[in-house]
């Protein structure tokens, strides 16, 4: 067996199940699950129709590069969304969702053949795929804490010179999971300057970019162009899962540095990760339509408007820059005890923030927070938050 598998830590939801095992919540209160970031809004009809109309694609092997139609649809979306003209042949690569692509990209980039173990830097808290991908590629994860006093952005000045010297890849997430923080142009400029100095690749996870409150988040490639740069050592990852409520379709794309994508395509050709032609056709329909995205966004805005002020009466919380999570600070500072007691008394599930982070530099930056995913219906989200506030009031009275 691959000995690196032993380095992997339990996934957050595995830890959550273990935490709540044996706890008996009140039977008279229906369960409200606000822990997992799985979109619950209906899949757009146009996507369903495109899937049904293209079932013949199931009888064919797809090309790893994807169809011309899909790559052109992705390029057209990048033009509309970011005012970027990308080469659909060399600067865009369809993938089976951003999760799969992020993992595979790390395996492509990392060179562990040298005398020193390479480093992959990620924000902390973080999406657990970043860590697992780094470990299985033979790299050492290095965590940069994202604290409230830093706008929940990584403080790159805290990274030692010796770490930068070994860094081959920096992963960023904007809008961030779980904090919802968005990188500014100045944030990007700092990171680009570091990449120029040390030569590392930047992987920008932007799968939450279309869940916002009227101000579209700045993207990594967009920032590079605004700063007069090309896309050297820079790729972005995006997905239809959140944008179009199709997490089960596993569809997204990677864009950016053509030289990196050529190597990534080679890896993926051997990896056997081509997207079904049926899913490709449905993806074209999704990328070509914005009406359903605006409707989806409006539903999230309505939920944030309804629940954020109410939740702020019990927990320290604010509306994020983007995304569909609330990153709420708990009164007693113990996120794990809070989540367990909340489930036991109110039958509401939230995710302890410490499960999304690692102890680093003397602190676990998620330890005093819980992540609340506003993916359920408006009514369920309101009811869930009412129960949370009632629970907090009892705990603090």
Automatic annotation (TrEMBL):
Designated name of the protein: Putative 8-amino-7-oxononanoate synthase
One Pfam family this sequence matches: Aminotran_1_2
GO MF term list: succinyldiaminopimelate transaminase activity
Organism of origin: Chromobacterium aquaticum
Residue ranges of every copy of the Aminotransferase class I/classII large domain listed in the record: 31-378
Annotated CDD domains: AAT_like
Domain of life per record: Bacteria
Alphabetical UniProt keywords: Aminotransferase, Transferase
Cofactor annotation: pyridoxal 5'-phosphate
């Amino acid at each position: 067996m691959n000995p690196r598998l032993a380095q992997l830590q339990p996934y957050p939801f595995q830890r959550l199940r273990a935490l709540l095992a044996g706890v008996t919540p009140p039977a008279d209160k229906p369960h409200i699950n606000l822990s997992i970031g799985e979109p619950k809004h209906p899949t757009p009809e146009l996507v369903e129709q495109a899937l049904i109309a293209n079932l013949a694609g199931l009888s064919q092997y797809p090309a790893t590069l994807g169809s011309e139609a899909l790559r052109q649809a992705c390029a057209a979306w990048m033009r509309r969304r970011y005012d970027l003209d990308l080469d659909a042949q060399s600067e865009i690569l369809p993938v089976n969702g951003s999760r799969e692509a992020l993992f595979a990209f790390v395996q492509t980039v990392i060179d562990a053949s040298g005398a020193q173990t390479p480093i992959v830097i990620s924000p902390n808290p973080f999406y657990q795929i970043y860590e697992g991908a780094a470990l299985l590629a033979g790299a050492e994860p290095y965590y940069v804490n994202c604290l409230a006093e830093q706008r929940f952005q990584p403080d790159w000045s805290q990274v030692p010179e010796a770490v930068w010297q070994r860094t081959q890849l920096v992963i960023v997430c904007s809008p961030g999971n779980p904090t919802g923080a968005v990188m500014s142009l100045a944030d990007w400029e700092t990171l680009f300057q570091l990449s120029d100095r040390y030569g590392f690749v930047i992987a920008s996870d932007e799968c939450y970019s279309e869940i916002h409150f009227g101000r579209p988040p700045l993207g990594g490639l967009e920032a590079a162009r605004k700063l007069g740069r090309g896309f050297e050592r820079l790729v972005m990852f995006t997905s239809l899962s959140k944008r179009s409520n199709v997490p089960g379709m596993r569809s997204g794309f990677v864009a950016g540095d053509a030289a990196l994508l050529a190597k990534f395509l080679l890896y993926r050709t051997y990896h056997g990760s081509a997207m079904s032609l049926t899913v490709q056709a449905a993806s074209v329909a999704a990328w070509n339509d914005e009406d359903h995205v605006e409707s989806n966004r409006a539903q999230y805005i309505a939920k944030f408007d309804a629940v954020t002020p109410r939740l702020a009466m019990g927990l320290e919380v604010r509306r994020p820059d983007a995304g569909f999570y609330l990153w709420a600070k708990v009164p007693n500072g113990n996120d794990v005890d809070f989540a367990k007691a909340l489930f036991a008394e109110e039958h509401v599930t939230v995710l302890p923030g410490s499960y999304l982070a690692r102890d680093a530099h003397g602190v676990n930056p998620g330890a005093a927070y819980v992540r609340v995913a506003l993916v359920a219906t408006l009514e369920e989200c309101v009811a869930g938050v009412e129960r949370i506030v009632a629970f907090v009031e009892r705990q603090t009275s």
